[in-house]
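Supplementary Data S3. Sequence and structure tokens for construct A.
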Amino acid sequence: MFPHHREREQPIFSTRAHVFQIDPTTKRNWIPASKHAVSVSFFYDANRNVYRIISVGGTKAIINCTVTPSMTFTKTSQKFGQWADSRANTVYGLGFATEQQLHQFSEKFKEVKDAARLAREKSQDKELANSALTIAAPQDLSDELQSPPVMCVNGPEDKLFRSQSADITLSAEKERIKKMLSEGSICELNLEAELFTLQDSNSKLVAALHEANANVEQWKKQLAAYQEETERLREQVAELEAHGGHGPSDLLKDELSQSLEELEALLKAKDEEIHILQSKKAEYHQMEHERDEAIHRLRETEMRNSELERRIQNSEQNLNNSLEDRDRMDSEIQRAIEILDIKIFDLNDLRQSLVKLIDK
């Protein structure tokens, strides 16, 4: 049975790294799984109480690893670490940009591994309790669960055949809904990882934009001061040219002209820097647009998941109704079998009585 309200996986930590996988033939060389640094995230499934490491590159999952208590993350250098996944029969390697990112990922891996160990211990305790209850149950139920004897009665046999066909149809429908739900979960997981990456990039761009805006204001003030100084120097040059002085005035004029050229070059450089910052601001608006689109796609996926959950509930209701019908038919068949047994017993008594009568 599917749960009526399925909780989706939640991201708990994310970073960016270059992903590698061990060469399956040599078991020594590393094969790049991504051309560029991609997001590597820890997800928690509250429904199954499991933790997973997910990394999506393009349209496929590069890493889809369930964290177990036996896993160990090993730092092999200042910016590289690895761990083995026995289920996928491979070894994953991550190359980080800084040593701090490697340390953060290693600490989070330890926390998630400890949480997975506690979850497994709780699950084992529940299984032990369930097994104890099973052992303590009465053994007479096994006799009641045995199949009734097969009798050549057309009505009950036909009902039993229809019941088995209904079970097969319901099982196929259940598997189809499981497949649809898993596909919706993978799509939602990819969108969540993309949204998580966009949010991280957005926060970095916002910080850079604030810093750039502060620098632009400061540079505008400097430009205003330089422009005032340039105008003053130009006025002095004009006065010197009007007086037509020679000697020391010519040297002062050269110095003022050189200062004027330096200030104009500085103004040109500042204008270029302002132009670069304005282009970065346009990139920031583009990132915001992409983030909004990702949020829109995520909402659409959530709506599709809600529709799938509704269909699952309807299928469960139909399955329950079919099981009740089957139980009702089984009880009718059992009553028919009991009646036939009584009739056969009565016929045997009648036959024995007739045999005794003939012998006399």
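Construct B, processed identically:
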Amino acid sequence: MERGGRAALALGLLLLLLLLGALLALREPAPARDEARGGGGVQKTFRALLAAGRDQQQQQEREEDPPAAPVRRGIFWSRELEARVPPGFAAEEAAAWRAAARGARVASLERGGCGRSSNRLARLSDGSRACVRYGVSPEQIQGEALSYHLAGLLGMQQRLPPMALALVEARGRQWEPVREELRGSHWAEGAVVSLTRWVDNLTAVVAPAPWGGGRPRALAAGELSGLPAAQLVELVQWSDLILFDYLTANFDRLASNLFSLQWDPRVMRRATSNLLRAPDGGLVFMDNEAGLVHGYRLLATWDPYNEPLLRSVCVFREGTARRLAELHRRRNAAAELRRRYRAREPLWARLGFLSERQAELLQARVDFVHRHIAQCRAQAAAL
């Protein structure tokens, strides 16, 4: 019996040691046995999964809760709020896409999905897709290209899909696979077209207050209290959009909707022209063919709509205001745009640049926006 008792005691101690070892194993992360599994990452421990869950929950709470002060210094969106704006098209990603699109062959051309009937949806040899826009006149393609690079100058290019120019040459390497389709397109040989990256799952955007009711109302710091974070994030993007459309005199977006109010009182409750929303909530400024060239010829018609829209905005991204202040101080808006356009677009000379008069108009509109921002600052300081 004594020998049996000692055996039972030894067995009990062994079981206790085994139990302690198992508990320690649960507390300590096990080394990865196969780092190639799961794309080369180390397998997550239970503790790491819990931490990731807490991080995700905290991120969701940050997105849902409005910032304590959405505006700082009276007229600038807070840094916290700007950090919540979806990133859009990163500069490196856009540059890589433009380079790839210029070198890719056009594998097929399809009708529909890209605006007017003369445009085509292209499938490129790398598997990506692009809208090929053939303007009614070359100035529309010029306006599209210059608007894209002006957005870069203003720090807004992440809101526009990447764009590059291409030369239509039926016997050229890029277009050889679709030679038959080109014959049916009625595109002129040697014409310059724009290639714009196709973006999936975009949805329509209805103008928010203060523009959704028809006559623009003021977007100022005092109008923002109590608004949810998602609405504030959208307004940050709208403030850039309205400045951008004033500078380019683009009438084919919110201004055209305002114009249509005279016969359609519900038009502002419908989708805004050439403005879409990405799945992450970021706004996408589409189809800027009316900007800078065509729009500058029609200022008398469309400034009665674009100017009140500009005056309705008195909260800005500080980076936008800073860039405009520099272009105003140096009085070199057209020269900087030309430099950027030439450096980034190999076919720029095929379309040319702004005329002297158009360059003067661009500078005048930069100066006007800068003065408007200064007026907003003075009004905020007086409160």
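Residues 21-63 have pLDDT under 50 and may be disordered. The chain is about 50% helix and 10% strand.
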